[in-house]
Write a structure and sequence with these properties.
This protein is an alpha/beta fold. The protein contains nine helices and nine strands. The protein has a single domain, classed as 3-Layer(aba) Sandwich (Glycerol-3-phosphate (1)-acyltransferase), CATH 3.40.1130. The radius of gyration is 19 Å and the shape is globular.
């Protein structure tokens, strides 16, 4: 188990991880299963078909096509800001969001000037789909596994921040909505304003969006099979680091602002704590 020094005041690391795949009665899930399987096949075809059509189009046309694709995929986005307001609010900023599912990039790519930092995917299907979504939406991504490339792009971003909103998930892992893993400070202390983005996800049938032991492929396919999933996106006030504030203190400040908005705990458990817990947890997914 993780060291006691990392504990927060309320949830344990186990409380931030859900082993069960489903909650509640199974009847409706089994009745829905044939339709869900058909939706997965049709939606994967739609991703390929619409992305290939949108690929050569101008950005404005891509954004329209991407909205159509999200409708086909059953992804609903709720945001109190209009696209123009989001563009003005996030322009030239780093947008730090809590991480709740493998689908989080779907609503983000619908936002203006979105550039997403990605590391890797444990599912080839998920990686291929993400590539097509970038081509369809007009959004861009940075491959952060290459540290030299990341450093160069950060320098370029600082020289010309206008027209870009750089999205990152400082937890570097996925929580279950009951609390936040501690934010890592590396991407939040770049001399740029940071806009906290609080995400909520509503999924039907008692589905757990990120079961602790499930593969990335199965998490992706289960979400794709849902009739409708809803993302609620709340952009909070920009945060600016003070002169005498440490890197971690600034990251904690951003984490706390999101946690307060979502009315959940801002924990000091880290990604490493989660994976240590997962390696010792013997419960089978159900």
């Amino acid at each position: 188990m993780p060291n006691e020094k990392n504990t927060c005041h309320s949830p344990s690391v186990a409380d931030l991880c859900t082993a069960q795949v489903w909650k509640g009665r199974a009847l409706w899930r089994w009745l829905y299963l044939p339709l869900g399987c058909a939706l997965v096949l049709n939606r994967l075809q739609a991703v390929v078909f619409i992305s290939l059509i949108a690929w050569p189009l101008p950005v404005a046309a891509k954004q329209l096509m991407y909205r159509v694709l999200l409708f086909i995929l059953g992804v609903k986005i709720t945001c109190k800001m209009s696209p123009k307001q989001v563009a003005a609010h996030t322009d030239g900023c780093i947008v730090a969001a809590n991480h709740i599912s493998v689908f989080d990039h779907f609503p983000v790519l619908a936002m203006p000037s979105a550039t997403i930092m990605v590391a890797n995917s444990d599912s080839p299907l998920g990686a291929a789909t993400a590539f097509l979504l970038f081509k369809c939406s007009g959004g861009t991504f940075w491959k952060v596994s290459d540290k030299k490339m990341l450093a160069r792009r950060i320098r370029e971003f600082r020289r010309r921040p206008s027209g870009t909103a750089l999205y990152t998930t400082p937890e570097t892992t996925i929580n279950n909505g009951h609390g936040l893993f501690r934010f890592r400070p590396e991407m939040l202390n770049r001399g740029l304003p940071v806009v906290p983005l609080a995400l909520r996800l509503n999924v039907p049938f008692g589905l757990t969006a990120n079961p602790l032991h499930a593969s990335g492929l199965m998490k992706f396919l289960r979400l794709l099979a849902m009739p409708r999933i809803e993302f609620e996106m709340s952009y909070l006030a920009p945060q600016v680091r003070t002169a005498h504030q440490s890197d971690q203190a600034f990251a904690d400040q951003i984490q706390q602002s999101i946690a307060e908005h979502l009315a959940i705990a801002a924990c000091h458990w880290t990604r490493d704590d989660k994976y240590t817990y997962r390696s010792t947890d013997k419960r089978a997914t159900r």
